[in-house]
Amino acid sequence: MSSKDLPEISDELRDKIDEVYKSLAAHEGDFKTKIEAIQQKTENDFDTIIVDELAASRIEHLQESDKTFKPYATDLLILLVGHALEPLKLSIAIHRPRYLALVYSSEVKDSFNKLGNFLQGQVRKWPTERSKPNPVDKLKELSLRIDSSKPKEIFEGMQVAWREIWSKQEGVAEGRVALDITGGKKTMLAGAFQFAAVTPFLSAAQSGPFPLYYMDFDDYDSFLRRPDLTSCYYRRISDAITLYQLQAERNREVSKAFQFIPTTSFFKKKPEELNNGELFDLAGLLHKCQSMSDRANRETIVRLLRDEIKHRIERNSGTMLDTINILLTCRTFEGGLIELLKMVKEFEGGSLNWVEVEAWTQIQIGWPKETPNN
Q: Which residues lie below 8 Å from residue 64, measured CB to CB, with a gap of 6+?
């Protein structure tokens, strides 16, 4: 995005921002002292006089590009935290969330504390309906510290937080959830990106991926090591699932016209091709299902398998090990895993745990297959 595409800022607001930077020249002391002073003044002025006006202009600009965005209507804002605070503060001011969850590492604990103080000051200015419940009261409970550089662990940590904490807050599971990926390191962003795309499909109340938002700046002051506040813009970015679905739709249309197999089918494994790690992941999901976690139910399912499979299963008294042995044996027979999954589905009906299993199998092996009408 170029400077000419950015929304206009009033002369009065621009003057306020310029005044913050000009104060550097008037401050006495060595270079380090000057930098610390301007950063502190910028932070104070930004919090008290600039943020509200700047947020209002960015909301108007965002609505032009994202017709689905509703200002001050976010129930849960999940915010990745880095060292730069201005974009994160603007995001909070734009969303005015009922609940705020900060995802951060121990390296930016100071940023976490500053954002908490900022939120407290902001909430005092919000209308009553946006400050009850007070997001400050739940900030520590909802926030998530992850000291890991592995996207997989970040993804899993956020999934656990959603399942056990975030989705249990009043109105969140059925409400508007937004994820701002501006802050945090690239590995955190990668894990969060996967979380936003996959997690909603495991929740019966969510209809699609969580919207992703990003704050960026067209200009950067290398001397002060901070973005130029007059050049910021806020936008919603596309998620991987939506992009893949659009491509899949196009593939299906082409396939109907030319009567050949959709290219998306080539990205799926055959059930018999699942490796042990993937099979253990599936076992963990099935372990949550009542039909597999209960010994009597599991026995019934095994008895219904074809003779050549059930007589080869090495049973174990432990639920998880028994489930793994069942899966390992079913994998060795063509159609064995699908046979087992169909039986579990019959027992589970539409349970939430089964929805999670089905989401996994759809991604890994393309089962259950899409119907011709989809």
A: none
